[in-house]
Amino acid sequence: MVGYCGLKASTANGLSVLNLIYRFTPEVWGRGYATEAATAAIAWGTAHQPSTPVLARVRPDNVSSQNVALKVGLLRDHGMDDEGEDGQDLAYTNRPRTEWVQLELPTDIALPTSPALPAGVSLASIAELGDTEQLRRRVYELNKECAADIPGRGEFFSYDEYIQRRFAADGYQPDGIILALDGAALVGLCVISHVPGREWAFIEMTGDRRSHRRRGLATALKISAIRQARGWGVSTVRTIHHRGNNPIITANRMLGFLDTSFTLNLDTPPSGVTGPSIKP
Ligand SMILES: CC(C)(COP(=O)(O)OP(=O)(O)OC[C@H]1O[C@@H](n2cnc3c(N)ncnc32)[C@H](O)[C@@H]1OP(=O)(O)O)[C@@H](O)C(=O)NCCC(=O)NCCS
């Protein structure tokens, strides 16, 4: 036997929960067994006890176990943190929360090492490439293409609307639009805005072409954008995503983003272009 996984009915913070337990011997780590088994356990819990949330408790230093919790769709749930046998455990649950996930990262934390870029791909900001009409059009086309894959994203902006929101907004920073180029082709972007005087910067959009996904490119783009924000002297980077956008939420959590709460005007749904919808 190399491990086990399952759900145990229990209570936490006065709430009935299904405690998700997974333990595997180190020799088989990295093969995805825990993720596969935990996915099956959660599916069973959701089918048989839909109103009882699944809770995983993980030691703060057990990063691979925290990643398993995120990969199976559990979210960091500060309200359910509890004292474990040897110190504070971090809680991950699938408790229903609001439609939007608001995330924040202090800029002074140690960022993970940036993944190696796919062969032939390089990063450069609009400040470096030159803010030309032609480049703006290419950024628009790429943003539109990527935004089509955002869950719940409706029709995308016209080019003129986009220019108003992205390039004419107070927070526009030419060094805050980081582009990924594969040869001459634009394949990815991360847009971080900063209204001078605010202590926070805002990641408005991250996306890459389908051909370039799952190779660490979005992570590399975000790390570059966060470094940029450090240069502006802000203390935190914020972002917001639709709860259904698991890929980007997971990518952010892997970088260290934690749940937070800030004032929003959700008349303009934050998907694709969000800066103008954020109130100071
Ligand atoms: C979300 C998006 C930017 C991710 O880009 P990417 O280059 O594939 O991301 P990375 O390779 O850096 O992935 C980092 C981690 O995020 C998570 N992740 C990324 N895509 C995922 C997916 N489809 N499903 C589950 N997890 C995913 C994984 O944990 C991944 O690490 P791993 O590959 O080692 O498991 C890309 O899918 C995209 O452009 N989507 C459409 C636009 C969008 O939704 N943008 C966010 C809203 S602004």
Description of the molecule:
This protein is α+β, with helices and mostly antiparallel strands. The protein has two domains: 3-96, Gcn5-related N-acetyltransferase (GNAT) (Aminopeptidase, 3-Layer(aba) Sandwich); 121-259, Gcn5-related N-acetyltransferase (GNAT) (Aminopeptidase), CATH 3.40.630.30. The chain is built from seven helices and 13 strands. A hairpin with a 6-residue loop joins β10 (185-193) and β11. It is elongated. Residues 146, 149-150, 205-208, 213-219, 241, 245-248, 250-251, 254 line the site of coenzyme A.
Order of helices and strands: EEHEHEEEEEHHHEEEHEHE
- CATH level-two architecture of the largest domain: 3-Layer(aba) Sandwich
Mean pLDDT: 88
Portion of residues within helices:
25-40%
What is the rounded Rg? 20 Å
Main sheet: which strands, in order across?
A: 8-9-10-11-12-7-13
Please give the number of β-strands: 13
